[in-house]
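Give me structure tokens for this 384-residue protein.
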Amino acid sequence: MDSDLKPKSDQTASSDSPASSASIEQELQKQFSEVKNATERQSILEQTRGLARLSLDQAAATLETSGTIAGVSLRASIEFLRAAPEAAETLAAGELRLWGEMGRRLAIGDVESAISFFIAGVSDLKGVPPDARAIVFQLCSRQMTLSAPIATVTLRKVRGLSEAVNDSETLISTLETAAEISRRSAKHSADFLAATPVVIESLNKFDDRAVKQRALTLASAFAFRAGGIAADAWAAMPTALANLKSEAALQLLDRTGDFLERGGGGALHLMLSGGEVLRILPELFDDWIELLWVVAQHGNASLVAFVRSTPRFVRGFLAPHAGCPRGDPALSGMDRNRAVELSKRVVSLTAEIARLDGEAALACFRASPGVLRTVAIEQFEEWV
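Here you go.
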């Protein structure tokens, strides 16, 4: 976590006794000594009664933060002081500072937004595990650098996210990944969080908990290597993993992670197409992966072209003949064992061609399912 976003260590944390009303009033008078308007000064001093209920470290954090907010907007600072006692029931001292800093940054762009932010309070953080709150503020602080509205919406939605995920470890992992995405894109980090409830529901259906853990690890790897593409990959996981057994799901996630070094876009397409292979012709999966490593030597464009052509390729071996009447036995397509045998031979042949010519290999790969319905594999091998 960024050091400047961590809650400051509480030097007086050992003391939980309420702050002295007199000392708070003196500190407020010192910090707001330049305020000339008598009404505003009175409004500020009236907050001492609420702050006196706070522990020393919370009161100190509130006073320090209110001073920094006042440097931008006195009205926003007063609203922060008014809201702080209630917020302190949920937030620790360091988190009060981070919450106040979010409001200060809002005030730089729009004072009214900052005032509304403080009036709304922190009720949306109630029920969020304490270990997750610091990460929430880190995420929101990064988002705010790029988009203040997205940051405030994220803060408001985190409670619902926590309830949907219903697991502290999983929640923290998704928030950390979103925080990493937010280094480059506030929108994509918000998209990632928006997709999380559906994705987690999908992952929880697997009998092996390792699937969810591997998926979370892969999402984090996407975030570090490919930024915003992580949101697309995360949202695509339910589709990619649909109807797969745990063993096949783990296999797919692992191979997707291996190809991340070739780029996020290619890995995303591989995950989706790989899921199709494992559903239709799982026996072909390992041979297909070996082919892709050969194809990757020709660049990412060639790799993506092969990957995107794969669903049509595997379906082609089991699809019915064109023009078959309804009810015809041929509608079942090629015998499955024969389809596995032919597809493996085509993939092996394509790999040999790809070592020499990527475009010719792609043409062979795309044409083979249709051609092998009318000619023998031996003749096809002679042609290519």
